[in-house]
Amino acid sequence: MNILITGTVMNADSNSTRVYKELVDICKEISSNVSSPLDTIEFNGSDFERYKRAMELLRNTHVLIAEMSTASTGQGMELQEAVRLNIPIIIIAKENSKISGLIKGSGKVKSILKYNDINDIKDELIKQIKEENNERTNC
């Protein structure tokens, strides 16, 4: 199972990167194939190469976890492509974050999990990912 975590890259601060690291650790309990904004932050390619890389990752993704505490237009593009590719989306965000109605209305959002600390949603996130994996393998 390939899991893609999306989130802000250009506006990523130390709190964002900490959350991404924790999400990667959680997802690695389920799959060894996890990509995250941390990988994108470290990628040194051109803008075109970044775009091409992001779209390739999406084509091979089975579930997308969108950390949406901070708005990101690049993430919006990734989410639209995930909708087009019929990839299930799990949104996570800090309490009081605003989630775009366009994204919530896409029909591909399986759940929205709010947290104060990422560990608040760990069990539910693992459950949601496993359910998506079961649905995928039972098709």
Walk me through what this model shows.
The chain has a single domain, classed as Rossmann fold (3-Layer(aba) Sandwich), CATH 3.40.50. The chain has six helices and five strands; from the N terminus they run βαβααβαβαβα. It has helices at residues 14-27, 37-42, 47-59, 73-84, 101-104, 122-137, and strands at residues 2-6, 33-35, 63-67, 89-94, 109-115. Strands 2-1-3-4-5 form a five-stranded parallel beta sheet, sandwiched between helices. Helix 5 links the parallel strand 4 (89-94) and strand 5 (109-115). It starts with a strand and ends with a helix. The mean pLDDT is 91.
Write the layout of secondary structure elements.
Layout: E1 2-6, H1 14-27, E2 33-35, H2 37-42, H3 47-59, E3 63-67, H4 73-84, E4 89-94, H5 101-104, E5 109-115, H6 122-137
Parallel strand pairs: 1-2, 1-3, 3-4, 4-5
Quick description:
The chain is of the alpha/beta class. The chain is built from six helices and five strands, in the order βαβααβαβαβα.
How many β-strand runs? Answer: 5
Helix % is: 40-55%
Number of distinct helices: 6
Q: Return the CATH topology.
A: Rossmann fold
Report the portion of residues in β strands: 15-25%
Instruction: Report the major sheet.
Output: 5 strands, parallel
N-to-C CA distance: 14 Å
- The computed structural class is alpha/beta
Stretches with pLDDT under 50, minimum 5 residues = none
Could you say how many structural domains there are in total? 1
Mean pLDDT: 91
Outline type: globular
Secondary-structure element order, N to C: EHEHHEHEHEH
Report Rg: 14 Å
Strand line-up in the sheet with most strands: 2-1-3-4-5
CATH class: Alpha Beta
Task: Give the second-level CATH assignment, the architecture.
Answer: 3-Layer(aba) Sandwich
